[in-house]
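[agent] plan:
  1. take the single chain provided in the ticket
  2. run structure prediction with default settings
  3. attach structure tokens to the ticket
  4. add a short note for the reviewer (M.T.)
[agent] executing step 1
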Amino acid sequence: MATVGSNRKQAVTSKSRGPQVGRPLFSRGSWAETSRISEILRKETVGGVILLVAAGTALVWANSPWKGSYFGVRDFVLGGQWLGLHLDLSIGEWAADGLLAIFFFVVGLELKREFVAGDLRDPGRAALPIAAAVGGMVVPALIFVAFTAHVGDGALQGWAIPTATDIAFAVAVLAVISTHLPAALRTFLLTLAVVDDLLAVTVIAVFYTDEINIWALLGALIPLALFTLLVQRGVQAWWLLIPLGVVTWVLVHESGVHATVAGVLLGFAVPVLRSAKKKGESTGISMAEHFEHLLRPISAGFAIPVFAFFAAGVNFGGLTGLGRALSDPITMGIIAGLVLGKPIGIFFTTRVLAAVTRANLDSALRWVDVVGVSMLAGIGFTVSLLIGDLAYGLGSERDEFVKIGVLTGSLVAAALASLLLLSRNATYRRICNEETVDENQDGVPDVYESRQD
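[agent] step 2 finished; step 3 output follows
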């Protein structure tokens, strides 16, 4: 995170370390992008705290004398088989398949926003988070396979569990420890998580779909096309869009593809750029921004916490049961994948990219800062639990091991990241102060003045 006053220092450093291709790694972006991401992270912080409370409540209830009522509620079946549609799902399945579709709709909006108008539209800036996300997926998967290859009986089905990053949980940790993480690192973390979500959706659609009902899948294209046509024309009428979205979800669910994929496809359909009335005149916020403002609070404050409440509840079975779970190869593979695999994959990929492009780290930061953020990305909660349910079946013994592994791995990753980031908080506080100085009182911090688009 170079400041205006450090530009000369960067130039000198670049000369001393060799030629530099493009901008330094983790350099500060534009004020518009930084302020947008800061607003998103503020909302995710609140949602992350609610998520932690929901997960904690589920754990307490599932291990209390009233645990039977918790599992009774989670496994209570709602719905039925109407018109040949298999909608007889337990409450836990409705939370995973239904409520998470809202979360993935917001993910779809954010993905399209990043690729069309955000950092990912610039190949130079997109290369780092994309490469880091891929590295942060490959290494944990390999570690999980190494732990479970000898087990057999479908244990390898869970290879994708430790590959996800939970941004809400991560920013909640940042809020709890009150670290002043620089804007460039926050942007990197969010963008990495967005790419991570895209990879997770792809993995779910490709590797966790057993049988496909091609007619239902083709049928889903009809309401999806109508939804796309309406939003592209600027129609915001909820009484038209919501039924089309629900029908798309139902048909995707019936097709055998996980229903949350419908949320991403619907999000992709929404236009990101503002439509213009006349040349140079904008109609206001884009359709994507409109939907994001409406649905992100619902996603972060309700959909994800409710899913977490029903997904995180696991009965440890006392110290003996907990010890047995922690010694299981699946549990150990998940913990090692999150705590070791994620940071190794992200950090190693970043260093390789820096070496290949001969790019220097921004002069305000050190590589230990990248290690800290990489550890923070090891918090894999929501999507990891979802993949665990898909891999082994909700309520199975292995699914219980998955929950213990995800919870333990995420907490250990959060603790290690907190210790490392807190050790650098004095530096982060100084950078944060530099990024908020606005001497000319124009609403844009002075360090961003030279970067306005």
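[agent] step 4 note for reviewer: Residues 1-21, 277-282 have pLDDT under 50 and may be disordered.
[agent] ticket updated
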